[in-house]
Write a structure and sequence with these properties.
323 residues, alpha/beta, Spore Coat Polysaccharide Biosynthesis Protein SpsA, Chain A, 2 domains, 5-stranded mixed beta sheet, 15 helices, globular, transferase
Length: 323
């Protein structure tokens, strides 16, 4: 089991305790404290003093992708399970996943369904579809959305290492890029049981970086299609994703820049952070290229409600005059 922690003290004790209670007891629990300043490392040390299966790695902050790759490098067990510092495992999670991989040697990765909870452990309602179960179902949706919930995943360690682990360029969507690369070399599936409680709350990373996730996912899908066609992935060695205006030249395909810009811009319409941040510039370029419609006019109102009336006026002007 591998967990990266950065200022996760609020929920960390419950997360660690849920792993320690697993019915499958033969595991190592690697916890990397990524430079926390909120007492997270003291919580880990408290548990480690009681449970020799816990190995703490404490260092300065380097970010999630560096932490995940470091954990993968330290892993001694042949199976590598993920866990976030704000979620809670059901007691039989590891047992169910180990049994699945033992029974399916052709599968390299297995996730699970989740129970959605809020910051007070109450049920949290979401409209997200269930994750696909079989490998065929995974492949049917993988070019449209992530087929696995990252903190539920258990994978064969050597397969993760063979594909290069997590790629640094795909910050905030490193898991989706990894599933797309793994889909070319192994089978992926989900156990249709809610073996992890996935926590939703206002300040979690996925809420703060929705636009970066959408843009990264669009690039990951382009890279996946390149690999499917037998061509090299031009993002494989990059430290950061290419800017949208360079995509035609990076991938050698005319029209990709506009295609990605329009797709991501429309996906960002409902995100407060995206419309108050980098997503707005993409939206304006989308309008200049001819984008219009009722939903874009509704976004003018949303921008005012988001507290950026100047951007609301800018979008209305662009819709009227295409400038």
């Amino acid at each position: 089991m591998a967990m990266s922690v950065f200022n996760g003290a609020r929920f960390l004790d419950a997360a660690i305790a849920s792993v320690r209670r697993q019915t499958f007891a033969d595991f190592e629990f690697l916890i990397l404290d990524d430079g926390s300043t909120d007492g997270s490392v003291d919580i880990v040390r408290h548990h480690a003093a009681q449970d020799p299966r816990i190995r703490l790695i404490a260092r300065e902050n380097r970010g999630l992708i560096a932490s995940l790759n470091e954990l993968l490098g330290h892993a001694r067990a042949p199976l590598f399970a993920r866990m976030d510092a704000d979620d809670v495992c059901r007691q039989d999670r590891l047992a169910r996943q180990v049994a699945f991989l033992d029974a399916h040697p052709d599968h390299g990765v297995v996730g699970t369904w989740t129970e959605d909870i809020d910051e007070y452990d109450r049920p949290f309602r979401t409209s997200a579809p269930e994750h696909p179960v079989t490998c065929d179902e995974v492949l049917a949706v993988i070019e449209q959305r992530s087929p696995l919930s990252h903190p539920t995943v258990m994978a064969r360690r050597d397969i993760l290492r063979a594909v290069g682990g997590y790629h640094v360029a795909y910050r905030h969507c490193e898991d989706y890029d990894l599933w797309l690369r793994l889909a070319s070399v192994t089978k992926l599936a989900n156990i249709p049981e809610r073996l992890l409680s996935y926590r939703h709350y206002a300040n979690q990373i996925s809420n703060r970086h929705a636009f970066a996730q959408q843009y990264g996912a669009a690039i990951a899908q382009l890279a996946y299609r390149e690999r499917q066609l037998g061509r090299s992935d031009p993002t494989e060695t990059l430290d950061r994703l290419p800017a949208v205006e360079t995509l035609d030249s990076v991938f050698g395909t005319p029209g990709l820049s506009r295609q990605v810009r329009d797709k991501v811009a429309r996906g960002a319409l409902y995100s407060r952070d995206a419309m108050r941040g980098d997503g707005f510039a993409l939206l304006i370029d989308h309008v200049r290229d001819g984008g219009n419609g009722r939903e874009l006019w509704r976004t003018v109102v949303r921008l005012a409600l988001f507290g950026v009336p100047g951007r609301a006026m800018r979008l209305a002007f662009a819709l009227l005059f295409k400038v």
